[in-house]
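Late entry, evening session. Most of the bench is empty. Finally got around to the prediction I had been postponing all week. Sequence below, unchanged from the version circulated by S.P.
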Amino acid sequence: MDLELGQARQTFITESRELLQEMESALLTLEADPEDQAAINSLFRSAHTIKGSSGVLGIEAVEKFTHFVENLLSQMRDGEIKARKENIDLLLECRDHISTLTALAASGIEELSPEVEANGAALTSRLGELLGAQEAKPEAKGAAKEEERLDGPSSAADAWHISIRFGQDVLRSGMDPVSFLTYLAKLGEVVSCTTLFDSMPPVEDMDPESCYLGFEIDLKSASDKAAIEGVFEFVREDAAIRILPPFSRVASYVELISELPEDTLLLGEILVKGGALTSRELEDALAKQRATAPGEEKPRIGDLLIEGGSVHAETVAAAAEKQKKNQSAGAKEASTVRIDAAKLDALVDLVGELVISGANIEQHSARIADAGLSESASVMLRLVEEIRESTMKIRMVPIGETFTRFRRVVRDISRELGKDVDLVISGGDTELDKTVIEKIGDPLMHLVRNSADHGIEGPEERKAAGKNAKGTVRLNAFHDAGSIIIEVADDGKGLDRERIAAKALSAGLIQHGAQLTDQEVFRLIFEPGFSTAEAITKFSGRGVGMDVVKRNIEALRGTIYIESAQGTGTTIRIRLPLTMAIIDGFMVGVGGSPYIIPLDMVMECVELSEAERSAADRRSYINLRGEVLPYVRLKNFFNEGGLTAGHENIVIVQYGGHKIGLVVDELFGEVQTVIKSLGRVYRDIKGISGATILGNGQVALILDVPRLMQSVETSFMARSA
């Protein structure tokens, strides 16, 4: 039992994080469009699920606080409270507090710190004031009365509503209606009780032994519908009873039913699980259905429930729609599975070892030269390739969720600094390796903050420059040549080239009189401690972050480029590999040592002619079909020993729209490459991004093409000058 509870608790923590992210996204959507009913419904569902799950698991701090938030969201959903700016601010703070409480629960901390308790108390007080002020408004009460008249009695936001009409023979049976109300109060707090005299006859026709009373009751209670129904067990046959759960308007039933898991195909069971019906009410309706005379058409269970007053017609319609969806989804109920990340990583590691073993078998079969063995090895390698591709696809997830998190960041910066900044997201469905997405979040956070803080001007400054008062930060992602490109762009003031150069000169980062390109100047902002901010804010300006951004991106075998025009804006472009685990490579030999080039960067291979070889000492480029192609001889670059081969080849690689040539001694062809990270001692070797183990057990180094390209271009420009 403890094991099951622990697993359920862990599932709750994981799902709560997702629900809290959905709450934040819905709140930001609601801030942009206060009338977006879908966003309000999404908010309510998320809070309702968190409250219910935390209550089941006994996480009282989360349950109690979320209960207050749910009350506010219920009134917002019913239109009694508007999604004004101050209300959105309050709900965002409440969302953050729920996140804090959930994180503490995940850590096993049951006793809250004084700071957390004080924050929770302050938020609860503000929620209470808002709810209390709404209840005091006469127009709100009038609207509630009107809705009650149209849709039937409606309970308080967090109370059960009980509608009971006692039969005339209740008193004769020895039952006192008041005793039921007294017992009902033991299950919770009777918020209101209205006595109805609709059935009361004229005085001259009244029978003193008959009961003509009815009651409309609001009850705050943690009991379920079945327990409340049990209070009236002895008068069920002589009374008409309707019990509506909290938030019992038709829209609430529809939402609760739509949220049910798709594991039920019976209409009555769907209504019971949705809270709109008790098992007893369902049994009574089924009994009526079974009592149909032979030869007569049996009435539908939904019609019987509506006629009996147990549920609304709209609720039955929602359950019928859910039933259709359940039937269509029945064959797909196991189509998605939540997998622990550690298990997935272990699977990828095993697939990597399988790739290495497959390469080893291929080499042995080629050495033995047995036709049957070679055929079997070929089939096995094809299957290994399919397994590899399928496993890699499992690790690929859309980057859109990471992008969405920054909406809150941009909003908070805008409010704090008095700016009006809009975040525009595109390419959110672009898929990237799970490991890369996990590690790219923090660098992107720094870049988005800098764009909103330093890049975007204040409203008055933008107007003076002839711009729209609202600034825009854009996040975009797309695939390009086997890599993923992530762009963080803004339409702000752009980078001041001269100011950056002056700051770098005073800091000793460049020499006086140095002639630098724009790209070289812009790269200076990635130096540790470098900042041109005039003022330090809570978000940025301390010179901490941009160097970390560059270091983290390079650790992912990525590169970062900057394009900027003063007065127009800045675009920071990040290029990352799609996966960090297994890639297709092109193996070459350099001085007797094997090297791997990522296959998606290889364009073509050409033989280095005698004329070009003789000119190698004088220049570092060749004429490739009328195009100047700079190249680097890898043997010299890596100080490889051995004699120079009689025939050299140039492998032409492309990255980021640029081409260079890599001069190698031998060409071995395509191989599947399992990337192994280098130790800390070798991590900073220029031009190497990792290593792999070949089928024969030999270690081959994987080339870092972007770094090589930078070195070649720098050398080429220096020689040209």
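Two things to note before I forget:
The chain has five domains: 2-146, 151-329, 341-397, 399-577, 582-720.
The two ends are 75 Å apart (CA to CA).
Will write this up properly tomorrow.
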